[in-house]
Amino acid sequence: MNKILAFALTAAVSSGAFAQDFPSKPITLVVPFAAGGPTDLVARQLAEALRKPLGGATVVVENAAGAGGTIGATKVARATPDGHTLLVWHIGMAATTSLYRKQQFKPLEDFEYLGMINDVPMTLLGAPKLPAKTYRDFENYIRANGGKLNLAHAGLGSASHLCGLMWQSAVKLDKSMTTIAYRGTGPAMNDLIGGQVDVMCDQTTNTTSQIEAGRVKAFAVTTAKPLSNHKLLKDYPSLQEMGLKGFNLTIWHAMYAPKGTPADVTKKLNDALQVALKDPEFIKRQEALGAVVVNDNRVTPAGHKAYVAGEITKLKTAIDAAGQFAD
């Protein structure tokens, strides 16, 4: 019994000492998408905000794109659980169990949940060539020509993919648009601007500058209510007020560590995250992108995990109805 007690005390002291020394090297935020996309932008802004509360630590972003985010997520799930390799991912964490029949990790079991970062509305966009000027014009045009039009997204499991699925399901088109998957948001947006594709639904973090420059047409936002406080998007209707009852989709981002990361380290990371989310400069930069920084219970590990569990259930309904899966 004495040996067991001594071992337990040694382990506790070692854990505490490890946390005191953390971070002992640069922290890597793994983004499971290509550089330049919406999640990458959120992670890079967060990396800057995290440095001060982590004692001036170096925080870098690493892009590990592919398979709808699951390659990067798997990389983190298998990383050494010491708090130096973290994942920044969006709603895809909740969608992956329904989208992929086979996967290398279990979202609710293989990560330590560190807290959520932001909520990002989506905007429904059309190519400049489309004749529609209002959302009602746009929906009528799609209903009349759906079978001839293309819907772009940034790849299976991407935010734009999920939004497109849910919107087509909500409007109940007689003839669905042809879905075209790209390897990232950038190429999809470029083809929308160029008119090679007709429709896209994506995060305000990626669409705001394109709308402001007049390169694409915006028709609606995906939140329950219009974005009345956003200087650019405040005049666009919400899909719910345009008749899609109950339609409310925001793309959240959150931070994770590998399962087994010491509790003292995860607490230190969550404490740093909560400080970063109150950083006025970070809030200002997020608001400029149309994102809302989380300031509720979801910024805690327990609140974060409970919310994702609920999102998994909600998204399963839409994904199963669409029948779009990957092996």
Write a brief structural summary.
InterPro entries: BUG, Bug_dom1. This protein has eleven helices and ten strands. With 327 residues, the protein is an alpha/beta fold.
Secondary structure: elements and pairs:
Layout: H1 2-21, E1 27-31, H2 38-51, E2 59-63, H3 70-77, E3 85-89, H4 92-99, E4 111-126, H5 135-145, E5 150-153, H6 159-171, E6 178-181, H7 185-194, E7 199-203, H8 204-212, E8 217-221, E9 250-258, H9 263-276, H10 280-288, E10 292-293, H11 301-322
Parallel strand pairs: 1-2, 1-3, 5-6, 5-7
Antiparallel strand pairs: 3-9, 4-7, 4-8, 4-9, 4-10
Protein name: Tripartite tricarboxylate transporter substrate binding protein BugD
InterPro entries: BUG (IPR005064), Bug_dom1 (IPR042100)
Pfam families: TctC
Walk me through the structure:
The protein is of the alpha/beta class and 327 residues long. 42% of the residues lie in helices and 18% in strands. The chain has 11 helices and 10 strands. Strands 1, 2, 3, 4, 5, 6, 7, 8, 9 and 10 form a 10-stranded mixed sheet that branches.
Main attributes of the structure:
10-stranded mixed sheet; 11 helices; D-Maltodextrin-Binding Protein, domain 2; 42% helix; 327 residues
The portion of residues forming beta strands comes to 15-25%
**How is the biggest beta sheet arranged?**
10 strands, mixed
CATH topology of the largest domain: D-Maltodextrin-Binding Protein, domain 2
Calculate the terminal CA-CA distance, rounded to whole Å: 50 Å
- The total count of helices amounts to 11
* Helix and strand pattern: HEHEHEHEHEHEHEHEEHHEH
Specify the helix fraction band.
Answer: 40-55%
Q: Strand pairing plus helix content: what structural class?
A: alpha/beta
Count of discrete domains: 2
CATH superfamily of the largest domain: Bordetella uptake gene, domain 1
CATH architecture type of the largest domain: 3-Layer(aba) Sandwich
Radius of gyration: 21 Å
The count of DSSP E runs of length 2 or more, i.e. the number of strands, is: 10
Report the top-level CATH class of the largest domain: Alpha Beta
Average of pLDDT: 90
Q: Ranges with pLDDT <50 over ≥5 residues?
A: 6-16
